[in-house]
Amino acid sequence: MERNQIIGLILIFTTLLAWTFLNKPSSEELEKRQKVRDSIALVEQPVPKKADTLKSVTQAQTQNLPDSIVKAQNETIFGAFTNVSAGKEEVVSLENDLIKIQFSSKGGKIISATLKKHYKTVVDSAGNEGKTLVTMLNNPANKFEYLLPLSNNNTISTAQLYFNVSKEGNTVTFRAPVDETRYFEQKYTLAENDYKLDYKISSQGLEAILAPSTKSIALKWENHLSKYEKSEQFEQNYSTAYFREVDESTDYCKCVSDDTKELKEKGIDWVAHSNQFFNTSLISNKTPFGPSTLSTKMTDLKKSEDVKIITSDITVPLENGGHDMTLYIGPNEYKRLVAFDNKMEEIIPFGSSIFGTINRYVIRPFFDFLSQFIGSKGIVIIVLIFIIKMLLYPLMYKMLYSQAKMGALKPELTHLKEKFKDDMQKQQLETMKIYREYGVSPFGGCLPMLLQMPIWYALFRFFPASITFRQEPFLWAPDLSTYDVFFDHGVDIPFMGTHISLFTLLWAVSTILYTYYNMQSVDLSANPAMKYVQYLMPVMFLGFFNSYASGLTVYMFFSNMINIIQTIVTKKYVFDESKIRAQLLKQKEKPKKKSGFQARLEEAMKQQQAVQEQKKKKNS
User: Fold this and answer.
1) What is the SS3 assignment for 357?
2) How far apart, in whole angstroms, are the C-alpha atoms of residue 613 and residue 620?
3) Contact at 8 Å (CB) between 201 and 284?
4) CA angle 508, 509, 515 (to 5 degrees)
5) How wide is the angle at C-alpha 286 spanned by C-alphas 284 and 288, nearest 5°?
């Protein structure tokens, strides 16, 4: 690229930054937009069903109506389930060494799940940090209700019913009886030393009570995902609904915008509502779920305590009046999810294609292996870097050797600059001839870097996705799964936030120093603008990595340090410049065969030079 092109790109990038900052809507404009959205949402609300209307009327008038009228209204709404349409809510719990789950008899649903081995950081009013256990599914706005179609054309929700409760060992049963032999039942059994529950529903003897030919019931599951991580924006972008259709790969709703998936054609094996590191999944054990609709809604992180709202409308088939399922409420631990043998481990966003494969089957198991012997995850990262760098050192050696050969040709290149100082095209053409004459490839240092890119990109996805690093400290970073805060300046700078990450800053500085050291042996006189691009890139990426997982910036910084050590040791103690110069002179004497690529490159340069000369003649 020519200098003018580089300057143009920098100006475009600067203009985009300025435009984004200057056109940021004011708080008044944002409030006005929200009012418009709220008005539209109000207009688009569906008309209430008959049962819902009757219920609201009943709730508003119950206090002023005689008991006989209230009873008649309830019988109209709830039909055979009238006897469980009122009652007293009872809370019961199941627990093991990993989790404590609380249930409510109203609706027979889970109202909280506390993970005993996982914590989240909380900040009090004085700004002091502390830790509390991660609790899932405890938002009062959550819904988990079955819609039962009755023979009287009403539809009632199990959330309106007060279930009878019985508990035996680690099993709790919620039953909404019509009489002694007919009932709707939900049964939960918590496994030992695990985060999963066997979950069964049963509609015993309800054939005459439910609408004719009822072969399935609708489940409405709404989950307000709570905030558990310091980097709220990152957590929101990694939280979504996952699902797997029968005989298909795992799929998901969009992560950075509202989305809806209409799943009508095939059955569904499971549905998961997932945060960055935790998920709640509903798995069908036998017959797949039927047609379903999954939707995700983004939240305003500055105003809401939720990172995302996920709604799943699922069709649950009734097999002999019931359905067997499994509930998983816990961390996104690879080995636990892979044990389900239904691709649930793909909830962990390690990436797709070759990058996901490298993370799942190379980096993850190797990291777990090292963790068996090393307690600190930060030290494991450094050991992993060292091993990778040693394995890739032959490529590094070739890159440095190519640079050394180009450095040894400085006298010849300097002579060319003086000879053709007024003709840049001719200078570049003659430079390529010298490279071919001495057997030097200017692209010799590129291949090693390209071969490392898949590993680097895989790690880019690995660190913020793996729960292994969550709340694991290293040096000044308290949590390798999110950014470290060296200094909180309190000013929200675009692309930077309100903090400075020290590991990101050290990476940028070390990259500039490493670039400066390498550029001493590289001749960029033909295109001096490239020299400044080398230094500009780490500065531009400061804003991106400033809020990234510190596990990655730890890797990048120490990777740079090992690169610098390898480069200095190799150039100072391995290479002999006089021998390299002698080899180049010997190479010069050999007959040369021009490659097809070199021939095409030189021909293109000659044509460009001819065009430039014609322009000069016209101008003169």
Assistant:
1) helix
2) 11
3) no
4) 90
5) 55
Q: What are phi and psi of 275, to 5 degrees?
A: -80, -170
CA atoms within 13 A on the CB side of 211: 13
Q: Which of 327, 346, 365 is the last residue of a domain?
A: 346
Does a structural domain hold residue 37?
no
Retrieve residue 448's tokens: 């090693």
| This model's pTM is above 0.85 | no
Specify whether the backbone of 247 is left (phi greater than 0), alpha (psi in -120 to 50) or beta. Answer: left
Q: Which amino acid is at 37?
A: R
- Domain CATH code at residue 191: 2.70.98
pLDDT, one tens digit per residue, over 428-480 is 666 777 666 666 666 655 666 666 777 778 888 888 888 988 888 899 888 88
Domain count across the chain: 4
Only one residue has tokens 């003659």, namely: 430
Please give the structure tokens belonging to residue 118.
């996982």
Tell me the two tokens of residue 10: 């920098």
Q: pLDDT, tens digit, for every residue of 147-206?
A: 998 887 888 899 999 999 999 999 999 999 988 889 999 999 999 999 999 999 999 888
The pLDDT score that the predictor gives to residue 192 is: 92
User: How many Cβ atoms sit within 10 Å of the Cβ of residue 38?
Assistant: 10
265 lies in which domain range? Answer: 139-346
Q: Which residues contact 537 (CB under 8 A, 6 or more apart)?
A: 511
Are the C-beta atoms of residues 553 and 502 closer than 8 Å to each other?
no
Cα(347)–Cα(251) distance, integer angstroms: 9
List Cβ neighbours of 285 (8 Å cut-off, separation of 6 or more): 324, 325, 326
Distance separating alpha carbons of residues 148 and 227, to the nearest angstrom: 33
Round to whole Å and give the CA distance between 136 and 333.
Answer: 16
Q: Which amino acid is at 419?
A: K
SS3 category, 546? coil
